Amino acid sequence: MRFSVSTRYDFRSGSQRAAAGRKQLVSSVPAHSYKLVLYCTDPAWVPSEPGLVEACLRDEGVIAERFEFEATTHYLCGERFLDAVMFLGCSPAVSLQPPIAFDSAEALDPSRFCNVRFRQHECVTMLAYEIHNLAPRCPSCRSNYDEWRALVAAWRDDPGSATWNCPSCAAAGAIEQLYWRHATAFGRFFVEIWAIHPHEAVPSERLLHALEDCSALPWDYCYTAS
Ligand SMILES: [Zn+2]
Prior knowledge:
By secondary structure, the protein is an alpha+beta fold.
């Protein structure tokens, strides 16, 4: 298994961040495009064959027609999207379709309405941890793990050596085994659901189980703004 740091999603140096800022100047995607991201709990997992997860989400009615935006494929919401992605609150404002006619670059701006995109990376990637910036918790005793910044730095330098030991209960594990409060994820394959703010919606148990059937491993979710 190989690891690397994504310049887009990981903690970045000042120069990398500046480079990303320049990149945003030529991108029509807003600086903060909020997403609900689904991921397999084994960071190394990728679909065993192309189209496996797409077929799963089609069967579940989560996705419908494809469209292209900036050379990547997105999917419009399917007929059962709102059963699979459950919005919280009394009267959420949910946009499931492009806001204007499907015939201009502006209409296709996928940050403005719910849609789905798959991302696959060559190496294990840490999604941006920008929204909450709270200490992750020990999965055993739920104590905050305050040394997480040093752990992330160690993971960037040498992923294989980035393990933690809980000072409260002596539990230990790999970086992805901390409870990151749904604020980041480690993986090679992600299902992004665009235009969902943190904790605005959650995936249904049925959706997570359907994805688990693809991988034979549990799935979880997090929120990103990138
Ligand atoms: Zn602990």
